[in-house]
Amino acid sequence: MDVSAMTENLQSVRDFVVSHARKHGFPDSETEEIRLAVDEAMTNVIKHAYEYDSSKRIYVSVGSDHENFWVAIQDTGQAFDISNYIEPDVAERVRQRKKGGVGVYLIKKLMDKVEYSTGRTGNEIRLIKKL
Amino acid sequence: MSTFSISKKQQESVHILQLHGELDAHTAPDLEQEILKLMDSKCYNIVVNFSTLDYISSAGLGVFMAYIEELRDLGGDIKLTDMKPSVYNVFDLLGFPTLYDIVDAEQQAVAKFINTE
Lengths: 131, 117
Fold this sequence. Notes:
- The structure holds two protein chains of two kinds.
- Chain A is an alpha+beta fold.
- Chain A has one domain (2-130): Heat Shock Protein 90.
- Chain A contains four helices and five strands; from the N terminus they run βααββααββ.
- Chain A has helices at 10-23, 28-49, 90-95, 103-110, and strands at 2-4, 57-64, 68-75, 113-119, 122-130.
- A five-stranded antiparallel sheet of chain A has the order 1-2-3-5-4, covered by helices on one side.
- In chain A, α2 runs antiparallel to α4.
- The two termini of chain A are 22 Å apart.
- The mean pLDDT of chain A is 93.
- A five-stranded mixed sheet of chain B has the order 1-2-3-4-5, sandwiched between helices.
- Helix content of chain B is 41%, strand content 32%.
- Chain B has one domain (5-112): STAS domain (Transcription Regulator spoIIAA, 2-Layer Sandwich), CATH 3.30.750.
- The longest helix of chain B has 16 residues, at 58-73.
- In chain B, α1 packs parallel to α2.
- The A-B interface holds A 6-8, 10-12, 14, 28-29, 32, 35-36, 39-40, 43, 46-47, 90-91, 93-95, 97-100, 102-103, 105-106, 109-110 and B 1-3, 22, 24-26, 55, 57-59, 61-63, 65-70, 86, 89-90, 93-96, 98-99.
């Protein structure tokens, strides 16, 4: 599916991914993990890659092989490589009254593997869960 | 499309927000507005009941991250109650149970406020 880069589309993307995760036989607990990871990744695209430019598009696809189920989220905005991300100190962020900065940490905790690629045509984050 | 809403009630000095639906980056500003409204009215004892909240993302958690310290500085607190296991898991992943007062039931949270007055 592809949607405009607006937070109001988060729910329909979550629902899309959840229906596919269930079809692949994931239990509720893992389906919830996939749902949250996809939400966090798409929110990052809206905020960081596109800086809230709702004229931009986000492409979401799901796939699987005999070992893994994955969700790929693609954008054409600024690259946001999560591989250099450092685990946040949540207590310190609360003391500093910061609203966020924990999305990538959650994605990495929730998924078995996260791949990020960037090129001339755009960026892709691939969220992978073992079947 | 938004399935999020908030209902409000008051018990003595305690203001209770009941969350319904799904709390994400789209709906978190609604919760933030409610908390800011309470703070503007000098209502610092806040209970948030999650029993009818089906989903939360880090944007929702961020609202609590942003205001808890200020509320505590002002002599109040936000106490979180009645979470479904799937919602509690998100708080737990980030270590919130050591930072926030998360209790099983709304009345338990209300009593904690009233008994310390």
